[in-house]
């Protein structure tokens, strides 16, 4: 019964989405106020019905209703509650419903909090959101309903893929989708602006917070996925350049570019057409990612069970949404005249460089990801494109970006002074040289590029801090005055500093783990000792232990350093009762500067066990850096200028006039 | 300059066409690197309780042959087994087997229980010969011509349809060429 | 053949009978690193360049699949047998094709892949150049008049900002 309610609610939501996608758009075009007014209640109603539907599916998973195909295929009565709930989105149908729910949530947020938007703009934005909703609701109802009943329900389910039974991965998809779908806001605003035929600084101000919010969530989602791969897959890898990873990374790259170009539109009223294009492309790449994951055109570790019928549907949808919006862009884009002029050496110039490099990097990743498909389609030849390719093409594009990043924020708008910026960065440069020399001294045998990587990371952190100090006039005025300046500075400035520091920390983490990872493998018997890095590990013993829905081989290692006992590590290999799959539970001992990572594998039948150990220097800096970037993003979002929902009577009247002009 | 604005649409259109073609492709099928190459050098002992092992020379006797890679632990092999039993009975083409990474007793029992369609069946205990043949998933079936060259590789279950419409026509063509 | 030689041969035969099957078993079931650390490092580096055939998108160094393990062992054996890195890769490519290489070789069918990024970069650079030139050669008068309107708008925005932060 509950499942039928869920299914029915989806159909009602579709009806409302159709209304939301058409009436306000036509109304805004022809000045029919009553049709424009439909947008808000329709968006809220659609959100309500989709929430009901999602709640119904969650209920079915929680009570283990094995009359539903989706529950049988992805759940099991003996599974812990957390994974019963995460099982809702651990499969194609349920994750699609989560996608739609988040889409409706963003639409609902505009409807509920977008009072300061001009009514016509809001109506158009909500209409575009509604049309995207129509596409996805049709997709789920026609090809992938999660509420399908089984004629002969089994007594128990098949269980969730053991790899996915992990707290990190349980919350990874919702964040990823919040990011993916969040970019739909920028997209809808861009389409609405193209229809209205105007883009102005006020428009950029409405778009930026939504983009920033989506970007923060996507960053969290990607970082969580990477962290999960690190500790759960058992090989210590943190990024594989897998098509599905790339599918989330490409919107991130373009979203980052969009964040920066929107600043130029807001402050300088230029780069308009480009920003609109970025907004369209960012969301298009999110859709493309959905297509890649669900259609089976590319093979991936993470892909959902695929079905060509679904592939055709998403492709058709993709063609309509992306093709239509790019066509609209081709027709209306030329009308978006840019205003402010600037010299190449200026803040705008720096942001243009940022956009060019990020976009090129994204195009490179897209080329590498889809090349096997292109080649197969054209010639039938099969080729693999793996990490060596991406490292060789992506990294060289990032280096100039990071070198320039420290100087960019120090440039003035319109016309900057490169010499002055360089002079202010003297200290950062000196510090980088010191760190480079220090790295060379400490790790003489390591790769030369590592020295450069560490120096680049320090350059960024120091550059961001110097810029921040300069804003506070630290050391040039009294500390009390600096404190006052600190309070008076817009929060977005602090956010930017934090985010750029985060990037520097990520670079150092990546450099550390890619350059100096130590790796040892050995067949060990109890009592044997292995040395790696500064550690000595002794296998004390191995035994089989029983978990709630698995049995595990657990090894016990005593870890010591220079004869002194430090800790005990207990890696496991788990075999699940409902699946033939085994998972590796690595034991990780994190410290600030490096991780010790231990894995136990199969027994050799003669009392020995296959073991692997890694020392991964600075690996946690990668996720720490991401976290700092996200915190920076949220600090920036808390800026009053960005608070979209805040009622602001004064501001409300001004944009209204502009929109009608 | 206005034309520049249409470029994104054109690029996307090309991408969409490629994606559409891509939907019909099978990225999981990896072509064999050994097509039109001589069979690898190998010499396998017979499966337990059987007399004839399999070696390269057995495939270079001037006769078109099929080589099927199978194992008792492989579920899909059970599915294609009746097809091969029928083929063996018809005697249209000689079928040899490579028993891939199998336990000797299990392999012997499996053949005893379901029947042995293979003229010769070599036991590849550690999978090394399998690697030489470029095997990546069991079952796989190869068509070898009179000169001992690999002409075709089929990955996965050979259905009656696959046999009648792909493999046997090729066998007949190769035989006719002689 | 003298007695001593016969004895040696006998011992050798016994040892090889005893050792061989065990070795085969050990090799086929478990990852055993090479004794020589330099060789082992080479093997680990090569593992990262080879694609696992069963799991499709991981290197054999990152996979729990059985075939990936067999290939890891094979790489170690080739290195132990004295093969160079290229020879080892070629050995595997001969059997599985270029498809197993995660670092695709530069050849006519991968020119677009390898040179594409350079072309994209140059096109982007050219685009930026065009844009920069255009935004600088607009006549001063137009620019000024546009800017006046701009300034008002900008000022309004900035005023909002100040309010927001006070």
Describe it:
The complex is a heterotrimer of chains A (661), B (178) and C (166). Chain A is an alpha+beta fold. Chain A has helices at 2-30, 33-36, 39-62, 69-74, 81-86, 92-113, 119-143, 167-196, 201-232, 243-268, 272-295, 308-332, 347-379, 387-407, 418-424, 426-442, 448-472, 479-488, 491-516, 619-637, 649-660, and strands at 518-524, 529-532, 535-546, 550-561, 564-569, 572-576, 582-585, 587-590, 594-603, 609-617. Among the domains of chain A are: 2-323 and 378-391, no CATH class; 518-619. In chain A, strand 2 and strand 3 form a beta hairpin. By secondary structure, chain B is α/β, with parallel strands linked by helices. Chain B has a single domain, classed as Glutaredoxin (3-Layer(aba) Sandwich). Chain B contains 5 helices and 7 strands. In chain B, strand 4, helix 3 (104-114) and strand 5 (121-124) form a beta-alpha-beta unit. Chain C is mostly helical and 166 residues long. Chain C has 2 domains: 31-105, Helicase, Ruva Protein, domain 3; 109-165, no CATH class. Chain C is built from 6 helices and no strands. In chain C, 25% of the residues are buried. Classes of the chains: A alpha+beta (661), B alpha/beta (178), C mainly alpha (166). Chains A and C meet through helix 9, helix 10, helix 13, helix 14 and strand 1 of A and helix 1, helix 5 and helix 6 of C.
Low-confidence stretches of chain B: none
Our Rg estimate of chain C from Cα atoms comes to 33 Å
CATH superfamily of chain B: Glutaredoxin
User: What portion of residues of chain C is helical?
Assistant: over 70%
Number of helices of chain C: 6
Helix content of chain B: 25-40%
Shape of chain C: elongated
CATH architecture of chain B: 3-Layer(aba) Sandwich
CATH class assignment of the largest domain in chain C: Mainly Alpha
Q: Mind describing the biggest β-sheet of chain B?
A: 5 strands, mixed
Task: Tell me the structural class of chain B.
Answer: alpha/beta
State the CATH topology of the largest domain in chain C. Answer: Helicase, Ruva Protein, domain 3
CATH fold description of chain B:
Glutaredoxin
Shape, per Cα inertia axes of chain B? elongated
Count of structural domains of chain C? 2
